[in-house]
């Protein structure tokens, strides 16, 4: 067996594990099979069903969440790699004040049809707008390139993101002026 | 046009935001996979791994030994009939002795978790005796091998119009001939197929992602041997359908229901993406032989078409889909002599069925390509030529349907030309293409279409719709219709129609999702029929309620009923708008006066006469029309294609909601562009190889063009507020116009869709060696 | 859904090395997981044991040394893209990594995973190979440096032994090289390359107007069982007295012949082979002639 410098627990093959992470700013501890992905944990274990599964293979973006500040496909994050991470899902993001302009713009521009891609789109848009206050067209296209939508042709989604950016900027400016 | 309507109506024609937007945007909308029930089991289908063969043995023992497996069911466990066909009885729910395509389900497993169910499905051992498969329409047509004992023809529609066709060709000034082929298209709804079946009240309740609750009800009742009344179907929020959730979900619902019925536990069946791509229906691949005769003046004089459609292993909806093909293969044009043979053929491939446009984008592609060839070779202007041959009031379609009303085709042609700035762009592009230093070639392509509304002559018996409206005592309103919201915006448009008729605000309306216990059979949510059918059914109910409300308001306001005006939640004196009663007060008054404010509505599609033998008569009661113009750019060295812009003019009768209408057009363009230049389903020896979203690719944000949508409103007398459908027409002209644009850029008419860069590159090379040009600069 | 495998979670590189030298079953590393998990979902027999190295900090660093940059195998694509010296001097690498998958994939996928995966279509590989990058392979017992060009032996296959791990990617420093990368895919974003090419080149302009190639490195992706260096093309270019249009054309033709592509669901042999030349020509145009 490993010598004393090793943490033997880490070196045992595991079936289930207990993980601690932060979900929408709340600390969580779950005991799950080690075969679970973050998406399985969210949907089956914690019943956070806003994050969707469109492919399970990292190809569609429907499962997009924010992990440690990066847009992440929840379907490709294995439970073991989740320990200590900071996760934001659509449930948490849509309740945040700074997401309101995005939600409002999506509603006002009908940036949803069947809606299955929408939570992922909103998360990716939120991430984009928290990185760039006034994204260029190219930055918008790039930021949403990993989120497939079969219904909208993206037109209204892109319009909504632009409108939200304008809105966020006026809110910020007003905030500064006040 | 719009401004006039704005005055006329208070809600119809307005940019009302989607009534279901919030729940979809914040993630709270419940799709079927978001639901869970106590003790719920997970199901997985066991599918054939060969395209054709006899089943010698199904051994469940290894699967049953796995811990957590509740059952493995095969054909012999079916309590009702082992049948699923929705039009023809040629398809088993679970294959019993023969498998006819790779992916055909033979068994169904239920287990405590999704992972166990998947593992168990892999442990069901099946022994086959492989048979020689039929893998394309030519093989099938030869009948050397029969996919079904009765032979390989699924259906054969004939259109015969005018005189002897060969005679007509000999009298034509010029005759053009070409054969086109077109591949599958996969719906690729972002939410895969799925359902949950629950044992309830001695019967079964199914929650599902579906377009047609009533089809599912019939399928489940048949499979289980239950009366319809014991089978309740409740629609969940649908994550995209596009035709793919028309008949196909019945198959999955019946399987899940069988497990739930036998095991007496809730059972969830969600297809994973690879399985969905493998087993669910697709748009029919076709081989289309076209021959067109044209007069010196550019009139289409004769058209002969033979189209062979790959229906796959079972009929499913082929007969109705290909009926549509038979009506639309000549495009929206007046053609005196027509001979058409549209033949559906069985193959040992995945069954093909409904997909947005229902068997028409394929033949439109072929017909519009022919027109492109004709215009290029004979020097006609593409708009003038189409205009010159266009259907208009008083003209006869290829089925000799005399167009009586609502025909805005020519207006769409003119608007598309103008709004796309075609003439200016054409000049610019010609100049660009003449410059050898340019890396790309640019092209413009045009396509016009018409599209029969509702189910038409082949489906008239299904063409009805019910509705229910209930006004509560506080004035809030609950609607239920039998056609479903699948993303197209049905709820919003229908709420607008109801609000306009009732005089209430859209925000006071709530929807109950389609539920077979609540609403009468309303046929399928297909054929762009929801606005018209459910809209009219709602108007039927709403008008009954409106009368009661107006009478009550007249009593309160002490005026005559014909002096009451209802708008935006107020009933007021037409002469004095300050004299009014609010909708909610009125509802309350009715409640205490014991006036019932709950009504059913019903609507039946206009009756039409059609002769199936020669394909002559009125196949549909009215048509939508559209013209699209595409701008593309092709890389001379790589063949890479970029669609830069689409301009689409649609005659939809009446635009109930401009924002949703343009959203439909944009979505249709996205699917059409994908179909035209990107989506390539590869199959090898009867196995689909592109079983993921990184091999079967659809457009991303970076692949999508700018879209300009224009609406023409030539009202239809039978549509609510004059409306016709848009859901499918939005996609239909796109493929042809994009391919024509690519062809015009490359100087080569592409005869296969999708047009991939490899093919464009090849064509450009051939052209270069033909033209003796040494190389691209 | 994933099933039937177990996970080991060593907490340091030492533990990793210990584990992989003692483990008696086939295993795979789990770094970003964007490749290994996709394959396991497709085929549950792909790996029965995963060794999770995603949390090993030592593997995730990017450092500047005297004559090299050292990229930890666990460095995420996003980290490579954010590293200023690369943005400045290794344009070819940045272009390639920026095109890998989607923003989602780049935020968890790693360079080590892209190499470890050994796909001929791995997009970071061509520019790294063109820059003469090397990888450090470590095991409990030994430590060796292998040229990336010698690392791959076939699709999914490399010289790495079962008790080894890629710890670093070593990127030499250069003066004067301009570099670029280009690819063709099935669509414009989130696409696996049908063909890709990386070029690093340094040209000297003679007062008489002729252009001599002082240094050139070319690698081609998705056109052979592994990513390859186009050595013959490089040699031709180095020996060319004047890089004029005819010479470029000839170089592109040589590059086409150096490729050995296959036909698969994404493209076909003839096209892929021909496109090697087109991509190379485009890169030369851009990097040498500024077009
Ligand atoms: C939707 C999608 C799109 C993609 N697009 C692209 C693309 O455009 N271009 C492209 O090149 N790739 C693409 N990929 C593939 C993949 O994302 C990349 O190859 C990525 O870099 C893999 O990194 P990872 O850390 O996720 O690898 P992992 O999945 O963790 O590992 C991949 C393989 O490498 C091995 N490995 C990992 N780390 C090491 C190590 N330190 N030493 C030795 N072996 C190791 C593993 O054992 C495994 O076999 C895509 C994947 C997806 C899902
Ligand atoms: S479900 Fe994760 S990317 Fe599709
Ligand atoms: S709204 Fe349906 S997939 Fe985007």
UniProtKB/TrEMBL annotation, chain A:
Disulfide bond found in the keyword field: no
Residue stretches making up the 2Fe-2S ferredoxin-type domain: 17-93
Xref: Pfam families: Fer2, Fer2_2
Domain of life from the UniProt record: Bacteria
Ribosomal protein is among the record's keywords: no
Coiled-coil ranges (or none): none
PROSITE patterns in the cross-refs: 2FE2S_FER_1 (PS00197), 2FE2S_FER_2 (PS51085)
Recorded GO MF terms: 2 iron, 2 sulfur cluster binding; metal ion binding; oxidoreductase activity
Assigned keywords, A-Z: 2Fe-2S, Iron, Iron-sulfur, Metal-binding, Oxidoreductase
Matches recorded under PANTHER family: OXIDOREDUCTASE WITH IRON-SULFUR SUBUNIT (PTHR44379:SF5)
Protein name: 2Fe-2S ferredoxin-type domain-containing protein
From TrEMBL, chain B:
Record-linked Pfam families: Ald_Xan_dh_C, MoCoBD_1, MoCoBD_2
GO molecular function: iron ion binding; oxidoreductase activity
SUPFAM superfamilies: CO dehydrogenase molybdoprotein N-domain-like (SSF54665), Molybdenum cofactor-binding domain (SSF56003)
Cofactor: Mo-molybdopterin cytosine dinucleotide
SMART domains found in the cross-reference section: Ald_Xan_dh_C (SM01008)
Keywords: Molybdenum, Oxidoreductase
Superkingdom in the source lineage: Bacteria
Domain Aldehyde oxidase/xanthine dehydrogenase a/b hammerhead, first and last residues per copy: 26-132
Protein name: Aldehyde oxidase/xanthine dehydrogenase a/b hammerhead domain-containing protein
Automatic annotation (TrEMBL), chain C:
Superkingdom of origin: Bacteria
Domain FAD-binding PCMH-type: 1-176
UniProt keyword Magnesium, yes or no: no
One Pfam family cited in the UniProt record for this chain: FAD_binding_5
Transmembrane regions: none
Keyword list, A-Z: FAD, Flavoprotein, Oxidoreductase
InterPro entries with a match to the protein in the record: CO_DH_flav_C, CO_DH_flav_C_dom_sf, Diverse_Substr_Oxidored, FAD-bd_PCMH, FAD-bd_PCMH-like_sf, FAD-bd_PCMH_sub1, FAD-bd_PCMH_sub2, Mopterin_DH_FAD-bd
GO molecular function, a single term: oxidoreductase activity
PANTHER family: XANTHINE DEHYDROGENASE SUBUNIT C-RELATED
Designated name of the protein: FAD-binding PCMH-type domain-containing protein
Species assigned in the record: Candidatus Wallbacteria bacterium GWC2_49_35
Lineage: Bacteria, Candidatus Walliibacteriota
């Amino acid at each position: 067996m490993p010598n004393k410098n090793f943490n033997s627990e880490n070196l045992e093959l595991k079936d289930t594990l207990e993980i601690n992470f932060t979900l929408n700013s709340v600390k969580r501890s779950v005991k799950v099979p080690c075969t679970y992905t973050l998406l399985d944990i969210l949907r089956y274990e914690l019943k956070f069903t806003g994050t969707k599964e469109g492919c399970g293979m990292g190809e569609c973006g429907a499962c997009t969440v924010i992990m440690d500040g990066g847009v992440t496909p929840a379907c490709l994050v294995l439970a073991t790699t989740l320990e200590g991470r900071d996760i934001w899902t659509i449930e948490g993001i849509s309740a945040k004040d700074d997401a309101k302009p995005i939600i409002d713009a999506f509603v006002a521009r009908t940036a949803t049809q069947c809606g299955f891609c929408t939570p992922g789109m909103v998360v990716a848009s939120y991430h984009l707008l928290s990185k760039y206050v006034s994204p260029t067209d190219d930055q918008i296209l790039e930021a949403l390139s990993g989120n497939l939508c079969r219904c909208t042709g993206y037109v209204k989604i892109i319009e909504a993101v632009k409108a939200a950016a304008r809105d966020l900027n006026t809110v910020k400016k007003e905030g500064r002026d006040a | 046009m719009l401004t006039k309507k704005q005055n006329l109506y208070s809600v119809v024609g307005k940019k009302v935001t989607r009534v279901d937007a919030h729940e979809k945007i914040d993630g709270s909308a419940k799709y079927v996979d978001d639901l869970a029930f106590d003790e719920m089991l997970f199901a997985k289908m066991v599918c054939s791994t060969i395209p054709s063969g006899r089943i010698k043995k199904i051994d469940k023992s290894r699967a049953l030994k796995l811990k957590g497996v509740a059952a493995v069911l095969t054909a012999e466990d079916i309590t009702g009939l082992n049948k699923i066909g929705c039009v023809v009885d040629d398809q088993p729910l679970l294959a019993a002795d023969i498998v006819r395509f790779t992916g055909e389900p033979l068994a169904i497993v239920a287990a405590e978790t999704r992972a166990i169910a998947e593992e168990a499905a892999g442990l069901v051992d099946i022994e086959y005796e492989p048979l020689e498969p039929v893998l394309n329409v030519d093989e099938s047509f030869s009948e050397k091998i029969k996919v079904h004992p009765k032979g390989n023809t699924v259906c054969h529609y004939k259109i015969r119009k005018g005189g002897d066709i060969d005679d007509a060709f000999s009298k034509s000034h010029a005759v053009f001939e070409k054969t086109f082929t077109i591949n599958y298209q996969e719906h690729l709804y972002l939410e895969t197929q799925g359902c949950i079946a629950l044992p309830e009240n001695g019967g079964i309740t199914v929650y599902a992602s579906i377009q047609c609750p009533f089809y599912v009800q019939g399928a489940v009742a048949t499979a289980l041997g239950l009366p319809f009344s014991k089978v309740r179907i409740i629609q969940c929020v649908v994550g995209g359908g596009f035709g793919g959730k028309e008949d196909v979900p019945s198959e999955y619902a019946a399987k899940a229901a069988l497990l739930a019925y036998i095991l007496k536990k809730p059972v969830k069946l969600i297809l994973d993406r690879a399985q969905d791509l493998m087993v669910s229906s697709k748009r029919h691949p076709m081989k289309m032989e076209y021959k067109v005769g044209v007069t010196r003046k550019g009139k289409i004089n004769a058209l002969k078409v033979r189209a062979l459609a790959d229906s796959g292993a079972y009929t499913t909806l082929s007969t109705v889909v290909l009926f549509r093909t038979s009506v639309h293969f000549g495009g929206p044009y007046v053609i005196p002599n027509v001979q058409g043979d549209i033949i559906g053929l069985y193959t040992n491939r995945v069954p093909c069925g409904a997909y947005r446009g229902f068997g028409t984008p394929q033949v439109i592609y072929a017909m519009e390509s022919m027109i492109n060839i004709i215009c290029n070779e004979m020097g006609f202007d593409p708009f003038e030529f189409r205009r010159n041959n266009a259907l208009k009031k008083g003209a006869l379609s290829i089925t000799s349907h005399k167009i009586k009303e609502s025909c805005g085709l020519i207006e769409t042609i003119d608007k598309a030309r103008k709004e796309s700035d075609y003439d200016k762009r054409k000049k610019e592009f010609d100049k660009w293409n003449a410059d050898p230093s340019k890396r790309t070639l640019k092209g413009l392509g045009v396509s016009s279409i018409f599209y029969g509304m509702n189910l038409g002559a082949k489906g008239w018996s299904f063409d009805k719709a019910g509705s229910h409206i209930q006004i509560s005592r506080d004035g809030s309103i609950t609607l239920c219709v039998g056609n479903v919201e699948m993303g197209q915006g049905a709820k919003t448009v229908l709420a607008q129609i109801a609000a306009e008729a009732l005089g209430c605000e859209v925000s006071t309306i709530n929807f109950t999702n389609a539920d077979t216990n609540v609403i009468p059979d309303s046929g399928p949510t297909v054929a762009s029929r929801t606005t018209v059918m459910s809209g009219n059914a709602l108007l039927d109910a709403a008008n009954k309620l409106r009368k009661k409300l107006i009478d009550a308001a007249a009593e309160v306001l002490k005026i005559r009923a014909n002096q009451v005006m209802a708008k935006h939640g107020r009933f007021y004196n037409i002469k004095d708008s300050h004299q009014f009663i609010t909708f909610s007060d009125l509802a309350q008054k009715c409640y205490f006066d014991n006036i019932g404010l709950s009504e059913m509505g019903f609507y039946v599609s206009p009756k039409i006469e059609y002769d199936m033998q020669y394909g002559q008569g009125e196949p549909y009661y009215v048509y939508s029309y559209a013209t699209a113009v595409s701008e593309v750019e092709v890389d001379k060295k790589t063949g890479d294609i970029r669609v830069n812009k689409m301009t689409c003019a649609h005659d939809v009768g009446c635009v109930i909601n401009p924002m949703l209408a343009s959203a439909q057009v944009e979505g249709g363009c996205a699917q059409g562009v994908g179909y035209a230049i990107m989506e390539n389903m590869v199959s090898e020896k009867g196995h689909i190889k592109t079983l993921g979203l990184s091999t079967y690719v659809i457009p991303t944000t970076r692949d999508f063009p700018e879209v300009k949508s224009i609406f023409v409103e030539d009202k239809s007398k039978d549509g609510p507020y004059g409306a016709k459908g848009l859901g499918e027409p939005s996609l239909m002209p796109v493929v042809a116009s994009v391919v024509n644009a690519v062809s015009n850029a490359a100087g080569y008419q592409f005869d296969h869709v999708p047009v991939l860069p490899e093919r464009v590159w090849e064509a450009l090379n051939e052209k270069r060696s033909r033209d003796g040009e040494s190389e691209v600069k | 859904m994933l099933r039937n495998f177990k996970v080991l979670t060593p907490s340091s590189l030492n533990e990793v090395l210990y584990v992989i030298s003692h483990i008696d079953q086939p295993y795979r590393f789990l770094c970003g997981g964007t490749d290994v998990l996709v394959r396991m979902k497709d085929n549950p027999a792909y790996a029965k044991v995963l060794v999770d190295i995603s949390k090993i900090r030592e593997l995730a660093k990017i450092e500047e040394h005297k004559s090299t940059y050292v990229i930890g195998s666990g460095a995420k694509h996003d980290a490579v893209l954010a590293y200023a010296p690369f943005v400045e001097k290794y344009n070819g690498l940045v272009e390639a990594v920026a095109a890998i998958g989607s923003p989602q994939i780049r935020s968890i996928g790693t360079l080590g995973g892209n190499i470890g995966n050994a796909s001929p279509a791995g997009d970071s590989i061509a520019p790294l190979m063109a820059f003469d990058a090397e990888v450090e392979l470590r095991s409990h017992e030994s430590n060796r440096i292998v040229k990336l060009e010698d690392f791959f032996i076939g699709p999914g296959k490399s010289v790495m032994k079962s008790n080894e791990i890629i710890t670093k990617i070593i990127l030499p420093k250069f003066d004067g090289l301009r570099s670029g990368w280009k690819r063709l895919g099935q669509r414009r974003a989130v696409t696996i390359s049908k063909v890709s090419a990386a070029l690093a080149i340094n040209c000297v302009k003679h007062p008489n107007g002729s252009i001599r190639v002082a240094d050139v490195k070319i690698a081609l992706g998705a056109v052979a069982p592994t990513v390859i260096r186009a050595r013959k093309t490089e040699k031709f270019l180095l020996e060319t007295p004047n890089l004029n249009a005819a010479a470029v054309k000839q170089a592109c033709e040589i590059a086409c012949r150096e490729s050995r592509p296959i036909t698969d669901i994404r493209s076909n042999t003839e096209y892929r082979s021909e496109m090697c030349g087109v991509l190379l020509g485009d890169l030369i145009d851009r990097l040498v002639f500024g077009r």
